[in-house]
Amino acid sequence: MKHEDGFHFLEFPSKSGKTDALIIFLHGYSNHPDMFAPVAEHLQKEFPNADVLLVRGPVPLHVNQQRKDDLGIPDVDDLYSWYKAPGKAQDSLQLALSQLFNRVPVVDDLNKFADAQLAKRGLKDDSLVLYGFSLGGAMVVQMGTRRPNPVAAVVAHSAPVFPIIKPRSKPETLLLMGDEDHFFYTRVVSVKKPNKLKKAFDKALSTISVHYDSSLARIKAAGIPVKGVIVKGLHHTINEDSFTATVDFLKGKLKKSKAPKPPAPPAP
Questions:
Q1: What is the distance, to the nearest Å, from the Cα of residue 266 to the centroid of all Cα atoms in its chain?
Q2: Which of 246, 39, 259 has its CA nearest to residue 153?
Q3: Measuring CA to CA, which residue among 94, 129, 138, 69 is closest to residue 253?
Q4: In the chain, which stretches have pLDDT less than 70?
Q5: Could you tell me the domains of the chain?
Q6: Do the beta carbons of residue 206 and residue 194 sit within 8 Å?
Q7: Region label for 167, one of left (φ > 0), alpha (ψ between -120 and 50) or beta (otherwise)
Q8: DSSP secondary structure letters along 171-199
Q9: CA distance 170 to 128
Q10: pTM of the prediction?
């Protein structure tokens, strides 16, 4: 795993040897980049001119071995998140407000990382895809809307989208979720607000719906061009159908370049 510009990440260099696009992928809460290596490999089959970076969250969660075994990654050092989970009501309030006003500090750090990685490849924002799963999807939406220039595309897979306040740019966005997602669900349900402020923020964002319908409405309300996709039978994961929907969306944003042909054999 490499470490550059403030973050650890797995790098998958372009298969063609020519890089004309950069895809940055952010994992979900209590995940590890190793879990998504097959996603990077399949992306490069479709976009062989793209470098793919699977970035690791900066906050270790100190999980037990059983949790890593259950995820099929027994040899990783730990699982990670993008920020510390709040323990006290005051911390929850601070995190909730930072989400509400698009001011989660790690987002700015991630954008600095993206800028540095683009510069190393001589690329601009129109060659950058921000792709995130679950909490990583929430992060890439905030990243994209806080950059001064629109990126090529943002993909928020199985992710909640929090209120978007004064977006600096409005990148084309895919919001994708399964109709059997057990974390965020697709339909809005009634959320009972606690009477006291402390109870309301005992858990960050406890009074804000994170369902697909609400998330899609927030993106549209911010004036961001968005395509919403619900994948039948999909739980809180990435499967073949959701990957196909992602690739179909990206085809219009990144050219589906072809891998170079092998050299012709020498004449006899």
A1: 46
A2: 246
A3: 129
A4: 85-103, 186-208, 255-268
A5: 2-251 (3.40.50.1820)
A6: yes
A7: beta
A8: --EEEEEETT-SSS-SS----PPPSSHHH
A9: 14
A10: 0.84
